[in-house]
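=== Structure Prediction Worksheet ===
Name of assembly: unnamed complex
Input type: mixed (protein and possibly other molecules)
Chain count: two
Listed entries:
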Amino acid sequence: VITIGDELLIGQTIDTNSAFIGQELNNIGIWVRRRVAVGDNYSEIWAALDEESKNSRVIIITGGLGPTADDITKPLLADYFNGKLVVDEKVREHVRYLIQEVFKRKGPVLERNLKQAEVPDTCTVIFNERGTAPGMMFKKNGVIYFSLPGVPHEMKGLMKKIIPILEKEFEELPVIIHKTAFTAGQGESIIAEMLKEFEPSLPPNIKLAYLPNYGMVKLRLTATGTNREETEKLLKPWFSQLQQIVKEYLVSNEDEGLELVVGKLLKQKNATMATAESCTGGYIAHLITSIPGSSDYFKGSIVSIFGAVSQQTVSEMVKGTISKLKVDYALAVSGIMGPEGGTATKPVGTVWIAVGNKNKTETLHLHLRFDRQRNIVTTSGNALNFLRKFILDN
Amino acid sequence: VITIGDELLIGQTIDTNSAFIGQELNNIGIWVRRRVAVGDNYSEIWAALDEESKNSRVIIITGGLGPTADDITKPLLADYFNGKLVVDEKVREHVRYLIQEVFKRKGPVLERNLKQAEVPDTCTVIFNERGTAPGMMFKKNGVIYFSLPGVPHEMKGLMKKIIPILEKEFEELPVIIHKTAFTAGQGESIIAEMLKEFEPSLPPNIKLAYLPNYGMVKLRLTATGTNREETEKLLKPWFSQLQQIVKEYLVSNEDEGLELVVGKLLKQKNATMATAESCTGGYIAHLITSIPGSSDYFKGSIVSIFGAVSQQTVSEMVKGTISKLKVDYALAVSGIMGPEGGTATKPVGTVWIAVGNKNKTETLHLHLRFDRQRNIVTTSGNALNFLRKFILDN
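=== Predicted Assembly ===
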């Protein structure tokens, strides 16, 4: 995977495209060997293409296809694949349609937009319904290349079209299966200690990886094989054993967020919830509502920036939320996220969490020691896990 | 920059470290030439080190330093730099202190944790207060290497220590200055059209880049020189000219988020605000409260999942929020984010936004056509920009 753009190198943009591309390829048994980011620089892009072509059979390039002068990918690809830029009529009509009829821009279509319809005559166009820059496919010396725009929404749409092309192109793709056990409440090294006999006992085609993240550890087993059914059958007992060993801390058997785990639990119980957030400022509500269909069980949040950071305050917030919003469960948090606002008795990182239903309230006290962003994320994760356990027990 | 970890290649983790590293290096005039991500694989890491050493004078490596078996960076670095692993006593005491006195873990410190204190005897340890894995510095054939843990909080702490080392090491670093003009409300190609005479008139050491993102376009001018003062003086009139050309859409002259722009405006006016959010589910409140000190002007949010998606509803939400939370300004949003919930008259992507003060309410209607996440982010950006304009005008 080659990503193009100075903004990636100077850190103005975080590359989320590569992760999506990696997931999609992995699903069909293609392993991403390397990921290289280079600037908007002709010779650097050319060198990266040369170099990656030596070791990979598929190369996916994103970025540098926009309508502005710093976008040099297309003329470069024309040169690299010995072609010249020609207008693709279907793309040209699509550009016109998008600009005049979807974006409803007045006046004639700009020349720079129409130029988006030019492609090297050595490529196969992969039509991009979602934007003006077309995807392109090239083949050279047994390597297959795809060039995609860097806009995530457009790149994602095109990846969905590339996957079946690759499946047809490589008939004998290996099977790669990942199974992820998601634990919370214990550090990576303690989890590793629990698995110290399990890990070396794994067969050579099953690999264990640890993915620690804000007080949660994802344990990923990756099995490689030639036949899906057989590989799944081989992986199954090892994954069961893994779940068994870490069961005290196991949150989920899927690679999913706590907000989805909690959402599924509530759906199962046909129950509702709401939050009262002080220090997390709506972040927990945002996590929960990022799940499609969450309005079935999530009834709202009261984000209030006042309120003392104490056990009593969060308990009262839970009770008030349950009665006001008429929900089955409520979650409340209050704390000092920093960098300012700490006192001698309540330093930055002091957090109180409460969860409850109409009969019962439980509280949790945290002492965090990170920066503001991480304190907010860590508090939210702990709160959702605390709620998850409360729902399971009550 | 070399990042290590299978999780990066299969897309289980989004790499945010590289952006931070790029920013820090850029600030002192070091340009990141390439960024390479490789898996937890000895020969791939070795090859990446060999290859990047050919073209870069500084190599920063992150990841693979954890206490588990898939973490192979440290033994590899011992081999690569012809050393052997030895215990660093200061790090060992720090590991013990963290585990027993900060994490308050009972029992003796695990062998796998104490192993974190082992470093190649050919390195200089860069002490990591924030975690158990130390940073390391190596030198070989005129290239300087740093190995840092992949945990963002720890990596960031160590980068702050590396910067002065690099400044001392490379006395004649070039000056790189970025100035970013942040526009909202107009697409990249229209902005480019406005700048079509400006861009070719730039001197060769000033470069313009376009960074489009969810209806906003950041325009970055990058000047390179040998003297900070002179380079700043050269850049200044060009940046003024840029601001002038795009002034109709200009939000800020800094590379900052809308939530910070709005926060600064409110602070200036000594005014307060609150939000009422339906479809964004607390995301706007989260953005606003991610700014340190936001509790001075942000008084809270009512996240309510009910409510009709209409002009009247959002107007009433604004009025209710102003009177209930006693704030100067309120922002309300309601919409259908998808993938479900659309109807013939109100399809997915229908959004109503209202902003107001006690005298006046204004509304904005959007028709989005993205996925749920992007609809939430786009709505929030539009809402904050709408509020910004309202505050400026009222």
